[in-house]
Amino acid sequence: MRGPLGAVIGRYPSSDGSTHLGGIIKHNRKCRDIAVLIIFIAFWIAMIVNSSFAFNRGNPLRLTYGLDYKGNVCGQKHAAQDLRELELKYWLNPNQVYQSGLKDSQFKLANARSICLLDCPIPSEDSLTWVCDYPEGDIRVSLNDWIDMNYDYFEFLTPEMRNSSLQLQGPCYPVIFPSVNVYWSCQFIARASNVSLKHWQQMGGVNIKEDIIIDKSIHEYINSQSAVLKRYMADIGKSWPVLIVCGGILPLFLSVIWLLMIRHFVGAMPWVTVVLFNVLMVSVTMFFYLKVGWIGNDAISPIIGEHDPYIHVYVRELTHLRVFTVLMSFIMLVAILTSIAIVRRILMATSVLKASITFLNIIMKHD
Questions:
Q1: Integer Cα distance of 72 and 211 in angstroms
Q2: Rg (CA), the chain
Q3: Neighbours of 111 (CB within 10 A)
Q4: Cytoplasm as a keyword (predicted)?
């Protein structure tokens, strides 16, 4: 026998006619689990403390830009150097990059000497170019002049400094490999410039490793799970106004318009809703197809800025985008087939909405 459908207040008879009193709460309920309450309070205190540290000492730019060998965030002003224009992380010593990519090596790419630059260096076609460390100490060059000189003050070095540079010990390092801007880090392309390498050898420079490991080492660093997670968090941090508008304000505004249209166009609104939903699903899916490169030539590239069109760099985000594209294709297909299958239900819904609106109009007239 079915019991009552609503809330039960007071005593109620059972199926055998007797009255139950044991199930009725007659006393004030209190929190008796003190241990859980203490854990809950401690959790929120820890959250508040953690949030205060994040707001006071955190730096969102670290999610996007890298650190140089001094621990400075690229693209930000610091006490020693003003790096606001220098957003790209560049590894100076190619042999350190090579060493970090060896399987048995304990040397990590994070410990390799890196600085912040305005753009990624490329080898010269007729000479050997250099990228020198930040000008300081005996180097009487300002930071702005260093940028205007394309980071090259090799001609101002003393003989001892030049010899040190030929040993890849700085302050200047040769540009042997081309590089491209991949997510604000200069990704080496393991294709050494023959002209630059010849000039380097003629000057008596140490042997420079020419192996694909140089390319893979930086690629694995950029493509690591932690780096991908940082980029996702940085994107969320940059797009919060869009999320608030598109996820909160705009849906609220459209829902009010939708209710008003149901009030005045009740017969057409179920069909309009279904059609708009399917059009939206198809549009979003086609947008994914465009950005993944399966339709047209507007695919998303991890390489920022102008670059050689024959250079392609793979990153995890492209795989994620392809997975979402396949998922959206499946959801779109299910949505369209479901819309076709529930045509009769839509007709019934239209009749119900018409009756509801008619009844609402009668009530409003009587009021």
A1: 30
A2: 33
A3: 11
A4: no
DSSP label of 67? B
Q: Both tokens of residue 118?
A: 């305005």
Confidence band of 23 (pLDDT split at 50, 70, 90) = low
* Amino acid found at 226: S
For residue 181, which of 135, 218, 130, 234 has the smallest C-alpha distance? Answer: 218
Produce one character per residue of 186-213: b if its CB has 16 or more CB atoms within 10 Å, e if not. bbbbbebbeebbebbeeeebeebbeeeb
| CA–centroid distance for 120 within its chain | 22
In angstroms, the Cα distances linking 289 to 243, 283, 286, 325, 333 are 22, 10, 5, 7, 15
Question: Which range scores top for mean pLDDT: 291-305, 322-336, 338-352?
Answer: 322-336
Q: Take residue 294 and report the two structure tokens written for it.
A: 């399966």
SS (H, E, C) 101-167: CCCCCCCCHHHCCEEEECCCCCCCCCCCCEEECCCCCCCCCCHHHHHHCCCCCHHHCCHHHHHHHHC
Rounded-to-integer distance, Cα 170 and Cα 290, Å? 46
Roughly how many angstroms between the first and final C-alpha of the chain, as a whole number? 41
Q: Give CA 279 to chain center in angstroms.
A: 28
Dist CA 100 CA 111 (whole Å):
9
- Whole-angstrom distance, CA of residue 138 vs CA of residue 133: 12
Provide the H-helix boundaries in the chain. 34-57, 94-100, 143-148, 159-166, 194-202, 213-222, 225-238, 240-244, 250-264, 269-292, 316-341, 343-366
Side chain identity, residue 28: N
**pLDDT tens digits, one per residue of 66-113:** 889 988 999 888 767 788 889 999 999 999 999 998 888 888 888 899
